Amino acid sequence: MLTKADFEKIITDSVANYPTLMPLFQAKDPRVLQPLNAMASMLSMLSAQVDVAVFETFQKTRESTILADAAMRGIIPKGKPANARISIENKSSSQYTISAGRLMTDATGKYWVVTSGAVVGAGQSAFITAVQQTENASTHTVSNANPFYSIEIAKPDDDDLFLSAIAVSDKNGELQWKDRYVNALPGDRVYHVEIDDRSRIFVRFGFDGVVGHSPLIGDIITIKTTWTHGTNAQPKAQSPFALDAIISPLDAFVSLKLDAIIESGVNPVGINTLRDMAKYPIAYDHNAVFLGEFDYLIRRRFPELPFVAAWNEAIEEKTRGARIDNINCLFVSIAEISQIASLPIELTTQSNFTEKPLSSATTKELAVIAAINEADNSYKVRLISPVVRPVTVTVDASVAKVYPLDEVQDQIKQLILSSYGVIGYEAGDRFVKPSFSAVFALLKSNIVSLQDALSDVKVTVSLPSLPEKPEALYLVTPESVVVTVSHSDSQRMGWS
């Protein structure tokens, strides 16, 4: 990169070619030096930009280039609103009801929306939940019938607000968002959200006869946007809240205070993070399903599920043989934390599975099916009930005589169950098959009586000798843990 000094040296060397100008230059006449200095400065700035442009082939550096690269990949930085639990005290002599959707403000003037209301008796208290956000609604009249018609999202005057959600509707109802028109057929009422290199956000419609649909001239489109303050919304514990408007005389007798922040708000990613995100598609493309990896898709969308299994027709036929009704099916088996303890235990080989009809599916199971169809709706999704296969863990330990045997035995059993049994799942742990080395390390690091030189422990882990089944959940049950503890015969030879 050429600097300003490099250009000034070239200028000085070339002045000798102009005898008339030489005396003025040597006398540092500002009428001569100022334009030459300005040109040297501008050329050095241009040289720096050229160098950056050459380097950006390998590493994005300029903010405009990073934004353009992110826009090309469909990365839209957005904020995540904070969620809070708020205590409400009714100081009146009548019952008070606060409903979802009610608008409140915190001590700093930021807006919160009630997400779950409550009925509070006279002189009593209760809890409600609220999300920190504000909504704006605008209408747009379609001015032309061009394919992929777009509407720019208007930004609020407050620069501290970040976009968190968009909803689009017309006279026929709400349209569905489809990321880059994935699984959108011609005529589907869908829209896509995109951003340009100047951080302008657009809602884009489809192309009649190709993908989605194009709105007609004169159609009125309603766009509702949700904005949040992200991490800037951090009210202090017990700080007061106020209802935004008084709609009932009882509103004046209500006291609102922050009890706890359930989930903190998040700001959109910064420019440096955005540059790194664009390198890795898995960091921003949440709809990619590579070679039928729906297992990963479900785990990413529903991280709270302790057990997830998703398999296709090929795996199913390896397990139970070919059947005509398995064609183009995707088999899904999930278990929520509250269901783990009540799952059926399988001790012998069962060739068939228990299929759950969609009519009796839980809310979570229906959400999982919707996520799969959103990624790829070409499959017929079938729900399979999971089963538990108990893993036998045998522990033979010897400890020093100072430790009570019953107490050590109970400690070992509870530790294994809390890590590989139902208790571990209820604590939100992921499904992990126990192994000898893992159980041995777990006992040595957590049981004090097994850590001295007089102790010894032998661990045996036996998986059920049954054919593998995708819907099988391997757990350690209270009946499958066998713990034997005895006192060590070893004695110290020296005095201490």
Residue stretches low in confidence (pLDDT < 50, at least 5 long) are 426-430
Overall tally of structural domains = 6
Shape: extended
Strand order of the largest sheet: 1-6-4-3-15-16
Report the mean per-residue pLDDT as an integer: 86
Helix content: 10-25%
Rg, rounded, reads 33 Å
Record field, number of beta strands: 25
Q: Please indicate the percent range of residues in DSSP E strands (runs of 2 or more).
A: 25-35%
Tally of alpha and pi helices = 11
Class of secondary structure makeup: alpha+beta
Q: End-to-end distance, in Å?
A: 74 Å
Biggest β-sheet, characterized? 6 strands, antiparallel, barrel
How would you characterize this protein structure?
- This protein is 24% helix and 27% strand.
- The chain is an alpha+beta fold.
- The chain folds into six domains: 4-53; 56-75 and 269-280, no CATH class; 83-132 and 232-263, Elongation Factor Tu (Ef-tu), domain 3, CATH 2.40.30; 135-228, Elongation Factor Tu (Ef-tu), domain 3; 281-388, no CATH class; 390-487, no CATH class.
- α4 crosses α5 (271-277).
- The longest helix is centred in the N-terminal third of the chain and has 26 residues, at 30-55.
- The protein starts with a helix and ends in a 9-residue tail after the last strand.
